[in-house]
Amino acid sequence: MDINKEKLVSYIKKLVEPKILVVGDLAMDEMIYGDAERISREAPVLILQHTYTKLILGGASNAAHNVSTLNGQQVGVIGVMGEDYQAGQLIETFKSAGIDTRYVVRDKSRKTTTKTRISGSISTSITQQIVRIDRQTNAPISEKTEEKVLRNIEKVMPHYDAVILSDYHIGTLTPKIIKTTTELANKLGKVIVVDAQKNLSDYKNVTSMTPNLPDTQKSVGFDVVDEKTLQRAGDKLLFDTDAKFILITCGSDGMFVAEPNKKYTKIPVFNKSEVFDVTGAGDTVTAVYTLALAAGADAVYAAIIGNVAASLVVRQYGCATTTIDELLSAVEKL
Fold it and tell me: How many whole angstroms separate alpha carbon 134 and alpha carbon 58?
């Protein structure tokens, strides 16, 4: 495909301008590292000597973090957390990333979603993840909490240029929150992008959505095996959601943009590199794609920028982010 590099660079430089609101399932990744010392005498388990703990924003929080590093911290989050120890850690991690948390709702009946990964190492080998512990409440939020979330969305939406609905299906994005947020965003002329793993047809009249290929196949009800079925899947998602365009991420096969009137664009993987960890790469694509759309890029150029951003974060371990300078440097090498 032909790419106007000057046009691409101009859109990347404009990523600093839009203000983004992220609504969805807030989460934190707690990474605990230690050196393997010996086997315990109490049980046949490994004893690790703790070296350090790293807190990383995950879930919808990671989408917000990706936005923050690109647009100079002009990003706010709305979601739900508990009143536990992890809630304090999450707020502090948000603050260190320059993300506005004033409108996050606390609910003492819920756990703050936290995924703890414990990894060990020895001097002669690489670090190895040993176990993951998940803390989360899977039930939908209560009506009382839902009303608080809705009030906050209505209060702050006018101050943002775009909204990301980040649905990890942990209970924040209820049908009422989805419907109200979408209607308000459309009324105010905001860009609205959906990142969800299932129930894609629950999202109507959005600007775009960014499902991966497996989630697309589940949603449309058939396997994507070639270009023809990929186009058919894009058309079905457009029909089911009334979105303006659909971005389907296809892993090592790049990306696919479907627009009305059977307009399709296949985008190859740019800036190919060794993939170290794909964790959170989808959040990066959604964040960068949304920023680019809000900055005036068309769907294809927005997708290309998201593609380049993803190629940078998969080189890093865990949920990662990138910067304007890194994007510009990567584009120069295309």
Answer: 12
DSSP designation for 83: S
Name all contacts of 212-216 with Cβ < 8 Å and 24+ positions apart.
212/248, 212/249, 212/250, 212/251, 212/282, 213/248, 213/249, 213/250, 213/251, 213/253, 216/248
Look at 56-70, 88-102, 270-284 and tell me which has the smallest mean pLDDT. Answer: 270-284
Minimum mean pLDDT range among 86-90, 167-171, 185-189, 329-333:
329-333
24 forms beta bridges with: 166
Q: Is 31 strand, coil or helix?
A: strand
Q: Contact at 8 Å (CB) between 236 and 253?
A: no
Mean pLDDT of 65-90: 94
- Known catalytic residues are 283
The angle formed by the CA atoms of residues 285, 291 and 294, to the nearest 5 degrees, is 135
Q: What is the mean pLDDT of residues 124-134?
A: 89
% helix, strand, coil for the chain, step of 5: 40, 25, 35
The HSE-up count of residue 166 (CA atoms within 13 Å, CB side) is: 32
